[in-house]
Amino acid sequence: MQKIVFATDSSCDIPKHFLTDNDISVLPYHISFGDEDFIDGVTITRDALYAKEKETGMMPKTAAIPPAVFEDFFRELLEKGDAVVYFSLGSRFSSACQNACIAAAALENVFVVDTNSLSSGEALILLHAIALRESGKDAAAIQEECEAYSARCD
Question: 28 to each of 62, 105, 153, how far by Cα in Å?
Fold first, then answer.
């Protein structure tokens, strides 16, 4: 049976313990407040992010993850399994999904799901994917079913 590795970005709204328990890797976004830069979930927590927003009155800014970073991330994940399914922040909100697709095209057995959603929507689709993986679906089928599911979650 194919070992499928799941991954998402740090905008996905799932508790860290759940990600760990379900072997879901996370690629963090870079966040900036003015001239200060942070790595989401690594050098700044969600609580600290909200506190900084309240303190400064500024909205944080993010930049899309570049294709080269995705490609390196996917290569690392392919060392842990036979296939990778990556659940991306919706393409309507960020070019990160397009960048993930560019990286995936350079590799074999990497599938990108455009969740068409933000944080909680991403999480719901990922939960659906966990059930599909547990039922024995392969990576291509999980991608296909999650893309269809994401259209209904919109």
Answer: 10, 21, 24
